[in-house]
Amino acid sequence: MAALEYIKPTDSIEAYNILKNNPGAKVIAGGTDLMVMMRNESIKPECIVDIKGIEATHILRFDENGLYIGASCTANEVMNFGPVKEYYPGLYDALKGLATYQVRNRATVVGNLCNASPAADTAPVLLAMGAYLDIQGPAVWQKPLLEFFTGVKKNSLSQGEFVQGLTVPRPEPGEKSIYYKKGRIKGADLSIVGVAGVFSRKGKLRIGLGSVYTTPVLVVADDLLDKDDLKDRLVERVLNSINPITDTRASREYRIDMTRYYTFKVAEDLMREASI
Amino acid sequence: MDIIGSSVHRIESVEKVTGEARYTHDIKMEGMLYARILTSPYPHAKILSIDTSRAKELPGVFAVLTGEEIPYKVGLYMVDKPVLAQGKARYQGEPVAAVAAVTEEIAREAVKLIRVEYEPVQPVFDPVEALKPDAPLVHEKLGEYSYVKGVFFPEPGTNVASHIKIRKGNVFEGFAKADRIIENDFYLPQVNHVPLETHSSIARWGKNGEIEIWTSAQSPFAVRNLLSVSLGISPAKIRVHVPYVGGGFGGKAGIHLEPLVACLSKAADNRPVKIVATREEEFNTLPVRQGLKAHIKTGVTKEGRIVAEEINYYWDAGSYADYGVNIGRAGAYAGAGPYDIDNVSIDSYTIYTNHVFGTAYRGFGHLEVLWAIERQMDIAAHELGMDPYDFRMKNLLRPGSITITGEKINENTGSVIKCLEAAAKEIGWGKPKTEEELEEEKNTGRVRGKGLAVLHKAPAMPTNTGCAAILKFNDDGTINLLVSGVDYGQGTYTTLAMVAAEQMKMPVEKIKVVYDNDTDMMPYDWQTVASRFTFMGGNAVIRAADDLINQMKDVASRVLRAPKEELEIGNERIYIKHNPDEYLTYRQVALGYTYPNGNAIGGPLIGRGMYIAQGLTNLDPKTGQGLPAIDWTYGAHGVEIEIDTNTGDIRVLKIVSAFDVGKVLNKELCEEQVVGGVLQGLGAAICEQYLYRDGVLLTRTFTDYKVPTSMDVPDEIFPIFIETPQLDGPFGARGVAEHPMISVPSAIGNAVYNATGVNIYEVPMTPEKVYFALKNRA
Amino acid sequence: MKDIILKVNGRKYNLRIDESMTLLKVLREELELTGTKEGCGEGECGACTVLMDGKAVNSCLVLACEAEGHDITTIEGLADGELLSDIQEAFIEHQAFQCGFCTPGMIMTIKGFLDENPNPTEDEIEEAIAGNLCRCTGYKPIVAAVKDLVERRGNDGYNR
Ligand code: FES
Ligand code: FES
Fold it and tell me: Where residue C159 falls among pLDDT bands split at 50, 70, 90?
């Protein structure tokens, strides 16, 4: 048995250096995915770097730049953070349906993204909201979430890099967002499809999709807003952007039909809300 | 009767809410080793060689075993299951080798060092395919296995582990009388029991040749008996303890990991060895509920009478059928449902395949056959243009009816008709939807429907099943009750304490049911299965109480100088009927009565009682005629659901479940059985299923195999109890442990039709399945 | 191997553990607090739920090392001697268990949840315990116990 080392740095650069020099090292924040992968030995890290000791990863704030979520902020912390429900209802929906209550007390939003599962619940809505990541490398740099996902369970971080936090831009006045998730049961389940929508009359219509492609998908449809047959065109564009698989949870055909239904519903609900 | 029928909390409540209750999972012993297993990656493969040398060298490893070193077979009814695969593996997940080491981690590492060379051979997965003459054989040596002869009928040279036939009347003549013939196929996949505590066992094989076992099992004496037969050791040399058990549902009946850890202990310098199944192993290595394919042909008259029924049941027993053959048997003798039909022919085949093997699961084949039967009954009614309620009422068993095995139904058998009436009434059967409701359905795409289904089940057990109970006095007149059935939460111990208290006319708090189950100390009981423990255990306890009372009266009659016949008990006293002031207290006779001068009589009193199944017979091999059942519990569900036609989601708004339990012994516990059972039935109905790819199980974790959560419960579950006393039941009671989950899928399937006009033939009715059924309707 | 100090149920323990050990394993095997159960080992069943600084977490998903510096409460820490907590009493009153194997985890989730949300709706209760699988009870008695408890706490403001 390879021994495991556990390190809890208090400084981002220190953490970066450890990770950089240890190809066998893995970051732990919430650990809810990592622990499962370690248990079934799909990964065998030599070293665990716990970033919860880094103060900056605990920042959760809402200001003129938008919402900043540090890498150690748990799903429940974010969900219960007042401005989230008010300004980012779609993110709130996504967090509410993420795994179970106990898991949400550990799982972090950033971790949900870094794990890069096509089914990650927060990804569609954060893509639609135009979130971007603070990546700690030799220095901190920013990267749009859209460029982050590179394949099933693959992200674009290079050796040593880790995500320190993410920023969700401040919504435009009157902007609405929503997320629907279809699982096999009502209780905790991975999504069969997840459809997020962000809409503002000022010219924004974005759809984020989960579990229908190798990565979470963003569909930009700002240009459709003035069209009469907006919803039909939107659905068509969405269906052209996905390529779901058949697995134990659902068939490809069901995923396509559910994507169609929920995209339509998302568009309808957003516009109804916006007109109230 | 003031105790019987009331609600008494579980006697072990405090232990369970404080975490003090100790389960096998929690037990640790001095010098204990930990076992891990290596399982087959192939569903069907010859084992060419196994190299354990590197595993044996790993520091900390005490023993490594393969099938060759322990050539034992185990089995309850059909002795077909090796402790570790011998010569070939018959399912993906089958244990092929095992290790005992000082820590679980080392055992796991050692397992990885074992090299096995396999040669995959042609597998067979579909039970009907497995019947074909050229199908690969799962058990080439079926003809050499020992099994219970005259009860099961294996067909060597085929994959048929047992073929049970039921013949009543003449189906050819019956079909000739029919105005319509309805023929359908139904299917249910395998499912898992999902006890929250996975299987776990500890064994120590002593240097004196005696084996001691602690295990998470339903039936300590069955473990002892089967182990003794399999190893060729006297049961007197085997001692089985069963501590608290974290759920069984049939999956812990019979014998499972006990022989493996026993053999490992022997090989590991006689140190105790513990194994705890991982959740993956619980799904993939330990047994499951069998799958079923059913073909039913029903002949009906215009008036709605069923005149003939021909049924084929093909059970996917998986790779071993040691228990499964009896499910094939129970599914046959109960296989036409609680209906009065003159001409019936049933062929029930328990068939080997290369799937995970099957075993008992709550309902024991009845949920499965009643999925087929109760859907078929609805379909038949619709084809006749009849209301399914009226159609059933015309055909249900009633006093005077003869069952398909030739048993006559009488007034005290219990009444399925009353159950259906009650369920239909409470669910509001036949009430048409209002205009507004229909409008609302159109707008939302959410449509409502109601469904009904009936059920029946009797304990499936050997004709000579027995049970004994002991009551022994403590110094202060309190009583210890000893039985060896296991209470894994169903509350039977509490109920038995109530039975004893009622009979002894004393407070239930003064009866202590001893929780440590130990075959060396406890009186015999066959198995805790089949909803029989309350019935048989209850009868044994009543007799033990009567025996104790008789002994108390012996002593009292001498002390009070009154004939025994004139003594009465009550209020923890034995008194003279016509002069209640002349009495002895229980305490005074408990350990022997002492006169003022020091003389003593009597002695520590112990009451003993036993019960053995009465009048059961084996079934005729050709016709299935005979008496298989000590008591039939009947029931019916009425359900109202809402289907989201956009997604196929089913929401259960209300389910009403009525059972003729004879007599409610403990109201609260009875209701809890219903609520818990209904939810398990709902799981089987809407989300649970084993999925394989090329024989490799895909649903091996809770991520892939979904069970209902607190968010998936019906909005309302409404239990109803009918009390038609069972003359030979304790205070008139019958069992009701399994029944709540039976026919839940059928009731929901019938409601789907009622809501949408679409028939579903396969469970689970997942959103996807319902969605496409609706979509393809056009 | 690593030396850590764990604070469990108000007591401090010095432990030398393998870094890969989960909090669940340390609780059950090193501290012999076997009230916390393992039903899956991968965060899906909730049987292993304990409180970490008052929050319900799956102890199978927490490395013991990560738990250092935090207050851990297990089922064993709930009752005060023979005086049960009101949640435990409500569970008995409503017989919100059968086999009892899910019960410690279930109770700990409810404890953490009610401390955070003392006045939940029925939906919120069902949502909160959806990560605690129970195969025996059908959940109804558990939800009833919590609802009743919430009401009683509201009435006499007691919470122990
Ligand atoms: S054991 Fe931790 S969630 Fe199942
Ligand atoms: S009481 Fe048995 S699992 Fe919940």
Answer: low
- Which chain A residues are closer than 8 Å to C112 by Cβ? 102, 105
As annotated, the residues of chain B forming the CATH 3.30.365.10 domain(s) are 291-461+618-777, 466-612
Cis peptide bond prior to A9, omega within 30° of 0 = no
Other residues' Cβ atoms within 10 Å of the Cβ of residue B507: 12
A195, A90: one domain:
no
Are residues C130 and A188, on separate chains, in Cβ contact within 8 Å? Answer: yes
- The protein residue with its alpha carbon nearest to ligand 1, atom 3, reads C43
B283 CA → ligand 1 middle, Å: 15
Number of Cα atoms under 13 Å in the Cβ half of residue B583? 16
ipTM (interface pTM): 0.97
Closest chain A residue to C3 measured between Cα atoms? A6
A77 and A106 together in one domain = yes
pLDDT above 90 (res A201): no
- Count of CB pairs separated by less than 8 Å, A with C: 82
At the top level of CATH, the class of B291-461+618-777 is alpha beta
Whether the CB of B103 is below 8 Å from some CB of chain C: the reply is no
Distance CA B166, CA B620 (A): 9
Residue C154's pLDDT is 85
Nearest to A95 by CA among A87, A107, A83: A107
B152: nearest Cα among B228, B247, B80:
B80
Q: Taking CA B553 as the corner, what is the angle to CA B551 and CA B555, rounded to the nearest 5 degrees?
A: 75
3-state helix, strand, coil in chain A (%, to 5): 35, 25, 40
Q: Which residues pair with B721 in a beta bridge?
A: B659
- By DSSP bridging, strand B211-215 and strand B238-242 are parallel
Q: Which CATH number covers residue A267?
A: 3.30.390.50
If you measure from the C-alpha of residue B196 to the centroid of ligand 2, how many angstroms do you get, rounded to a whole number? 7
pTM: 0.97
Tell the residue nearest (CA) to atom 3 of ligand 2.
C134
Is the same domain home to A61 and A162?
A: yes
Is A261 within 8 Å of chain B by CB? yes
Interchain pair C42, A36: CB under 8 A:
yes
Domain stop point among A169, A195, A216: A169
Residue C84 · residue B18 · CB < 8 Å: yes
Q: How far is CA B725 from the centre of its chain?
A: 23
Q: Domain ends where: A123, A152, A169? A: A169
Instruction: Name the band, by pLDDT with cuts 50, 70 and 90, for residue A276.
Output: low
Chain A: list its partners (3+ Cβ pairs within 8 Å).
B, C
Residue C39, chain A, CB below 8 Å: the answer is no
DSSP state of C27: I
Range B466-612 has CATH code 3.90.580.10: no
pLDDT, tens only, B243-273:
999 999 999 999 999 999 999 999 999 999 9
Distance from CA of A41 to the nearest CA of B (A): 12
Within this chain, do residues A66 and A42 fall inside the same structural domain, yes or no? no
β B358-359/B288-289 pair status:
parallel
Is the Cβ pair C61, A106 closer than 8 Å? yes
- Number of neighbours of residue B434 by Cβ within 10 angstroms: 9
Is the predicted pLDDT of residue B72 greater than 90, yes or no? yes
Kind and range of the H or E element at A200? Answer: strand A193-200
Give chain C's domains with CATH numbers: 2-76 (3.10.20.30), 86-152 (1.10.150.120)
Structural domain boundaries, residue A204: 176-273
Of A231, A226, A259, A261, nearest to A243 by C-alpha is A259
Which CATH entry fits the domain spanning B13-121+199-276: 3.90.1170.50, 3.40.50.300, 1.10.10.10, 3.40.50.720?
Answer: 3.90.1170.50
pLDDT higher than 80, residue A2: no
